[in-house]
Design brief:
Blueprint: E1 5-13, E2 19-28, E3 33-37, H1 44-51, E4 61-64, E5 67-68, H2 73-78, E6 80-83, H3 95-105, H4 112-121, H5 137-149, E7 155-159, H6 167-182, E8 186-191, H7 194-200, E9 203-208, E10 211-217, H8 218-224
Parallel strand pairs: 3-8, 3-9, 6-7, 7-8
Antiparallel strand pairs: 1-2, 1-4, 4-5, 9-10
Length: 231
């Protein structure tokens, strides 16, 4: 089976000499939920930002849905939806307009039936005409996910999806991610909560100081780890 994400010998050194990523090798397969687990500053966001084309890569090769992220940037990027950690939505837009506009950014023709399905799947349909500024934090995060799914990507990245949210919303998010996977989406989430990785993922990769120190099936990794959070 061809991986949806393939990373080979990836390095990233910033101009100040800081090496954020060191020889990363990683394959993520269609339909799996993969958790990238590590403390703050470990390199999680840098890695997914490179895969998503936001940060320039250093040495190495990165493929998304079989497309090189540099040589075939547009096709690689079309295959990916990204939900960043920060809530950066246009507060004055309605939910419907924000999600529809996001689809247009990828050159996709309008498809109201897809936007409707996404909003219903995320329990946003009854909020479709509300301005984003009027929504709760949890609903705003759902809008971010809807925007990321608007262009029908096969791969979804969630960067610290439950950071700073309460326990009830965290469990709602977990349920939502499971439903997305059932619909065929490959999901990669970053987290520093072991509990979240344990609850959600099929496989877990642990990253520390810019290096992936292990990748294992959840069950075998959980047998080794007793803590609930990586620091």
């Amino acid at each position: 089976m061809q991986p949806d994400i393939s990373v080979k010998h990836l390095n990233k050194v910033y101009e100040d000499g800081f090496q954020a990523l060191k020889d990363i090798n990683l394959d993520i397969y269609p339909g799996e939920i993969f958790a990238l687990l590590g403390p703050n500053g470990a390199g999680k966001t840098t890695l997914i930002s490179i895969i998503c084309g936001i940060v320039n890569k250093g040495d190495g090769e990165v493929l998304a849905a079989g497309h090189d992220i540099v040589r075939d940037y547009r096709k690689a990027r079309e295959a990916i939806g990204l939900v960043p950690q920060e809530l950066n939505t246009d507060s004055f837009e309605t939910v419907w307009d924000a999600v529809s506009f996001s689809r247009g950014l990828f050159g996709k023709a309008p498809k109201p039936e897809h936007i409707e399905k996404v909003l219903k799947d995320l329990s946003l349909w009854d909020k479709r005409n509300n301005r984003i500024m009027s929504l709760s934090g949890g609903m705003k995060r759902r809008v971010m996910i809807a925007k990321a799914l608007s262009h029908e990507p096969r791969i979804l990245f969630l960067d610290e999806p439950t950071a700073g949210v309460d326990v009830e919303l965290r469990r709602d998010m977990w349920e939502m991610v499971r439903k997305l996977r059932e619909g065929g989406t490959t999901i990669i989430l970053t987290t520093h909560y072991i509990e979240e990785a344990e609850e959600m993922a099929d496989r877990i990769g642990v990253i520390r100081h810019g290096e992936i120190i292990l990748v294992e099936d959840k069950s075998s990794l959980m047998a080794k780890l007793g803590k609930k959070e990586l620091r």
